[in-house]
TrEMBL record:
PANTHER family reported in the protein's UniProt record: F-BOX ONLY PROTEIN 48, F-BOX ONLY PROTEIN 48-RELATED
Pathway(s) it belongs to: Protein modification; protein ubiquitination
CDD domains: F-box_FBXO48
Higher taxonomy: Eukaryota, Metazoa, Chordata, Craniata, Vertebrata
Name this protein carries in UniProt: F-box domain-containing protein
Domain F-box: 30-77
Source organism: Gambusia affinis (Western mosquitofish)
Length: 153
């Protein structure tokens, strides 16, 4: 006796769509977060960088809920920012801010600070050369670090 299926075979779905993989669960869902345990979805989201994580949280209500509720995701991203902005991140955490808020407050600052410390703006002769560059406010201690890095170059 030959096995009859209720719908098209998984191979047919994969080949037919060609745009990507299709979820093959019984409900026909294409959202992995609907079928996987939350912990597994979090593990998948951990592979994203901070910008992609924020974009993913705008995909649907379920993804937003999983991402927003996971301190683990925000802590991981925040620790990357802390490598550049240790004082700022530690201060925000001492003030009781969540990992997510701490990340949002310090992400742009860390990107700008890292660029300055790496010498990206070493050859700037006037403020006009910075037009179009993303900047963020930096404190006096950070400017001291940047100036010391310039002197060391």
């Amino acid at each position: 006796m030959q096995h009859e299926s209720a719908g098209p075979s998984p191979v047919f779905l994969l080949c037919e769509r060609r745009a990507g993989l299709t979820s093959l669960n019984a409900r026909g869902s294409q959202n992995f977060a609907e079928t996987l345990p939350t912990e597994m979805s979090v593990r998948i989201f951990r592979e994203l960088d901070a910008e992609s994580l924020c974009r993913a949280s705008r995909t649907c209500k379920l993804w937003r809920s999983i991402i927003d509720d996971s301190e683990q995701l925000w802590r991981q991203q925040c620790m990357l920012v802390r490598a550049v902005c240790r004082r700022e991140v530690d201060s925000d955490r001492r003030d009781g801010l969540s990992w997510k808020v701490t990340l949002l407050r310090n992400y742009s600052r860390s990107r700008v600070k890292a660029a300055w410390l790496a010498g990206r703006y070493s050859g700037v002769r006037s403020a006009d050369e910075l037009l179009g560059s993303k900047m963020a406010p930096l404190d006096a201690e950070t400017w001291g670090e940047i100036l010391q890095a310039e002197l060391d170059r």
